[in-house]
Amino acid sequence: MYDALIVGAGPAGSTAARLLAQAGWSVLVVEKSAFPRRKVCGEFISATSLPLLYDHGVRDGFLAQAGPEVRRVGLFARDAVLDSAMPLAAKSIAGWGRALGRDHLDLMLIEAAAKAGAEIRQPWKLTGLARCAGGFVCRIVAADRQQEHRARIVIAANGSWERAPWMPAVPSHRRSDLLAFKAHFQGSALARDLMPLLVFPGGYGGMVHSDGGRVSLSCCIRRDALESCRRAYPGLPAGEAVLQHIIHTSDGVRDTLRPARLDGAWLSAGPIRPGIRPRYRDGMFFIGNAAGEAHPIIAEGISMAMQSAWLLSQRLIEGRGNLADAGRLYARDWHNAFATRIRAAAAFAHLAMWPGAARVLPLVKRFPEILTWGARLSGKTTQLVQ
Question: Does 332 score more than 80 pLDDT?
Answer without folding.
Answer: yes
